[in-house]
Each structure stands twice: as C-alpha cells, then as structure tokens.
Specification:
The protein is α/β, with parallel strands linked by helices. It has 6 helices and 9 strands, in the order βαβαβαββαβββαβα. Strands 1, 2, 3, 4, 5, 6, 7, 8 and 9 form a 9-stranded mixed sheet that branches. The longest helix has 13 residues.
C-alpha cells in the first residue's frame, strides 16, 4: 500500500480549495491501493470541510495537528509517523497529480528491491489548468547547499521501513538536506522522468514568503554534515 502524505495549513483562506484539487486528482488514479494521510495545521475548518467531501471516495486518515504550528517539516513528519503503507509518497497540498497512472508507476518502480527512494518528473502551474516548465530530476553533488535539481518534496517517494524524518530546523533547505541524507543511506534515487505531479506557483507558497537569510541555513547544513 502507498501512503500519500499531505501536510496542510490554512494557506490564508485557500487551504480548502487547494486540498480539494489535490484530492480530486487522487480520485482519478488508476492505482487504488493507497491511503491519504492529512496532518492539518489550519486554524480554520476549510481543509477539514473540503476533505470531508471525499471521505466516501478515498481512504483518508485526517489528523488535526496542534504541534509546532507553522513548522512545515514538523507537519510533514507527523504524516510520516501516521502512515501505514509500505511506500510513502509525500505530496504538498498546493500541488497535484497530472498523470492518472502516477501511483501505479511509483508502485511498479518499488517492485525492484533495489529501489529505496525515488523522484519523479514534474511540471509547474499557477491555475491547476495550464502546465509548463517540465523538469526531469537529476542528482548533483552540491544539492545539500541548495542547488536543487530534484524539485520539491512532492516528487518524492520512499520505503516506510525505518523512515528518515525532515529536519525541523530548516525551511528553504528542508528538501535538499533530506535528499542528501537519503543519498548517504541509500545511494542515488530511482528516477521516473515522466511528469507525474505539478508544482503550483502562487503568492502564498512558503518559498515566496521566506524572509530570512538563506545563508544561515546553508551554514547550518554544512556544519551538520561536515560539508
């Protein structure tokens, strides 16, 4: 079974509509042996109300999460802790699946016992209708310091056996530091070049509202990994 792990928050009033689009794209999946794990940091009921409309269509484990409100890595980690599937598929609430065979392709890739983690192709959207800028992930030795040639965590899947958790001290580098640790433990990822998901570009995304000096995170990850 695949656990589609979705950390959510209010997104300044757009949380309900965004999770609805994502869940709608999950309903269309040809692969059906999956659960949806939602850990919700919202301070309103919009995500819950939207999610409730899919209860009869999807196997959803909804968790209200009052811990570390506003800390995205912490909320992702809570979905991982509550995942029951053999495979964990991370998915941010503002992104969506653009291939109805996405989960099937991921499941087939993990039928190879050598596959411990994988990343997939993606594209980008601002409205959930028009898609552009396709990206095929690739590894590079400087990924730890922010040269992100893989993309967002929504392209990521990994086995749920002694899973690694995201570093809750990071924001902008939470994904690349995580990829680096997966690489240290398991080597290079399996790559599915097909664009299976779309990253949404919008004014409320975390990267658009980051007001700190990213060099502080670069120094932190360098010291953490003696890089």
């Amino acid at each position: 079974m695949i656990s589609v792990c979705i950390p959510t928050w209010g997104v300044n009033g757009d949380g309900g509509s965004l999770i609805s689009e994502l869940l709608s794209s999950l309903v269309l999946q040809t692969f059906t042996n999956f659960e949806v794990v939602i850990s919700d940091h919202s301070n309103d009921t919009l995500v819950f109300d939207a999610m409730s409309l899919y209860k009869g269509k999807l196997d959803i484990n909804y968790i209200t999460n009052h811990k570390d409100i506003g800390n995205s890595p912490s909320n992702v980690n809570n979905t991982i802790r509550n995942a029951k599937g053999d495979i964990i598929k991370i998915m941010f609430q503002d992104d969506l699946f653009v291939d109805i065979d996405a989960l099937n392709k991921i499941d087939k890739a993990f039928s190879d016992v050598k596959c411990q983690w994988l990343v997939t192709g993606c594209n980008h959207t601002s409205d959930g209708v028009n898609f552009d800028r396709e990206m095929v992930p690739r590894w590079n030795p400087d990924i730890l310091i922010g040269i992100n040639t893989i993309s967002s965590p929504s392209v990521l899947s990994f086995r749920n056996n002694n899973p690694i958790f995201f570093d809750e001290s990071l924001v902008m580098l939470m994904d690349v530091e995580y990829y680096h640790r997966l690489y240290l433990d398991y080597g290079l990822p399996t790559i599915i070049s097909d664009p299976l998901i779309s990253n949404r570009i919008h004014s409320n995304q975390i990267s658009s509202n980051y007001g700190e000096d990213i060099n502080k995170e670069v120094v932190y990850v360098k010291n953490k990994h003696s890089w």
